[in-house]
Amino acid sequence: MILNGHRFSIGKDLGHALVFLRNQKRPLRLRVDAIYINQQDLPGSNSQLQIMQHIYLRAKSVLVWLGQDFQVDSGIFGFLPKHQTQPPADNDEEGSHPIQGPIFPTTFGYRQRLWIIQEIVHAYQLVVCFGSSTRLDWETFMRVVMKHETCQDGPGRLYRLRMEVAAGSSTLQALLFKHGDAVCAEPRDKIYGLKGLAADADDLPMDYRKPFMKIWRDVIMFVNKKKTLAETDIMSFGALAMVSA
Its domain of life (predicted)? Predict the structure, then answer.
């Protein structure tokens, strides 16, 4: 793609998502983390990650991109009104918050990127997009998925977590136990991604410049200070935090 007059390399899925969202009538305002955040600039990346929760809470909508090739049985969504199978229009009014997105898991398996969990859970409004023109609001998408989902994983798991976080009942300790199997390319993302969902982790320091072992120590000291873990379980929890990341 061309960014500010220069070539900028992006992934295939992101390219497909941007083509899907392109609106020829007027510019579409997007925030795309893969473009906006310079992962090589640790101080800048740190500052962005610390406000990520607020960005997703304030965004007008978050776009969930399931992929250009994502397909479902045509009968499953056959009942939908015609307007729900068209690309999202830019109805953003001047001064309102920009659209946030896109998020682009290529399958229902959300574990490919743990930050997807935080992005989806904190979003005020979610729009699910896939194929060449299909878009659904999150509630409609989940209503259909929950009827056909045969396991406790995938979108249903995210749906339940959204409800738990909204209720303020998710602790960092519980999140590590429940979602410690999510896979991250960057080990520190596991801790910091789940910290953003925890109702009790505001005082856990967040610094990507720290070696992972110091971050692991911060987590152990944080949980130990909460006194919510039996002494006999501290070692096993420490091992979980290590494996999780």
Answer: Eukaryota
